[in-house]
Amino acid sequence: MDDFDASLRDQLDGFIDQHRAMLLASLDGLTDEEARRSLVPSRTTLLGLVKHAAMVEEVWFNEAITCRSRAELGVPLTPEESMTLEDGDTIETVSLAFREASERSRERASLLGLDDLVQGNKRGPLPFRWVLLHVLRELAHHCGHADILREQILAARQH
Questions:
Q1: Domains of the chain listed by start with CATH number
Q2: Among residues 54, 36, 61, 57, which one has the least CA distance to residue 111?
């Protein structure tokens, strides 16, 4: 995001979209087996990170905004559950789910201003600016994990 004169809101939206794209790009050129590969004790995988990010979109841009519960939304209750891969999870299906969740998030977010309060989080009412900053932080965090996992996967191809 290099538009230094853009509004704060446009900059936040731009950075969030940039990190969404970077997380998806971490899967580029990989096989489903590589994307599912567990390389750390936490069982975090590249595919699991993208699946988790789709849950993050639903938690912050659906649950927090609409006040509907995770159970009502069909969203995993914990971050750990959101990274659990099912047999049918592939790069194609998980990427599509993340892109669709992100699009729904953009639509809901477009209706709110930075100072609007969202009511559906366990912390209580939160300013929407906090939600945007939190989502940006979370995506950036997972992009860092994805970079390292991808580097390990590509290095293993050399051997």
A1: 8-157 (1.20.120.450)
A2: 61
